[in-house]
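Protein modeling request. Please complete all fields; requests missing the sequence field cannot be processed.
Requester role: graduate student
Desired output: 3D structure, token encoding
Chains: 1
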Amino acid sequence: MTETVNDPAVLAEVASLLARYEAALMDNDIAVLDGLFWCSEHVRRFGAGECLYGHAAIAAYRVARPGGAPSRRIVRQSITSFGRDHATADIEFEPLGQDRLGRQTQCWVRLPEGWRIVSAHVSFLQRS
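Delivered output (128 residues):
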């Protein structure tokens, strides 16, 4: 592989975007959340109870979810970049007041309109 893995500048860009995503998620800022996802029929988001195909389905899910995402605390975050235009971001989080561990993975790509999430997955583990 000739591309640089974990270029510090790319890692900083994606870390900033991940922080922006987290703030928008906790504030239920649907416009920001929708803007961070690739506006394409090819984008995917697999959640704890839903499989969403395409930007329209993801946007509709966010609008229909009353109150937004439950509060959570980030436990661990890892970003890996590949070249200047691709990165994965993984976090582990604790939903406040719940005895389970959440996991979130996002694949980010730098497109002509800027960095966008092209694929996302959220799942949970019980801690008993």
